[in-house]
Design a protein that fits this description.
A 7-stranded mixed β-sheet has the order 1-5-4-3-2-6-7. By secondary structure, the chain is α/β, with parallel strands linked by helices. It is built from 2 helices and 7 strands, in the order E-E-E-H-E-H-E-E-E. The model has no long low-confidence stretch (mean pLDDT about 95). The longest helix is centred in the middle third of the chain and has 10 residues. The chain starts with a strand and ends with a strand.
């Protein structure tokens, strides 16, 4: 799948997929990498070391710093794949050095799929 590089780098890992937008501030614990947003389809699951796939971000600009905090604390995702990366997520992944690609048909990826992200080329490949 071809998309657009938001933040450079490459990563490979198990996909964790949400069909719902993710709000990082109040949605993911920056100390544990666990989704804590009540009622979110990923509530209780860890994003640590996984390829986090979701349509777009939502919520506060503080979310950028939560993404940075996840990486700094060693509990961040290996990569992020979006249908559309908005400013909050883009700023966060760039600060954190997390590879990120958008413009991807995320319906083609299921939780548990092994995925390779080459953000330098803007590609996402199911393995």
């Amino acid at each position: 799948m071809n998309g657009r590089m938001i933040s450079p780098g490459t990563a490979e890992g198990e996909a964790i997929v949400s069909t719902e937008p993710i709000g990082f501030y109040g949605g993911i614990d920056a100390k544990t990498g666990i989704v804590i947003e009540k009622g979110h389809e990923l509530e209780g699951q860890s994003v640590t070391g996984k390829v986090l796939v979701f349509p777009c971000g939502k919520g506060s600009t503080v979310g950028s710093y939560v993404i940075y905090g996840l990486a700094k604390n060693g509990v961040g995702p290996a990569a992020i794949v979006n249908a559309e990366t908005e400013t909050i997520v883009a700023t966060g992944v760039i600060l954190a050095g997390i590879p990120c690609v958008d413009g991807i048909d995320i319906s083609q990826i299921q939780s548990g799929d092994k995925v390779k992200v080459n953000a330098d080329d803007g590609t996402v490949e199911k393995l």
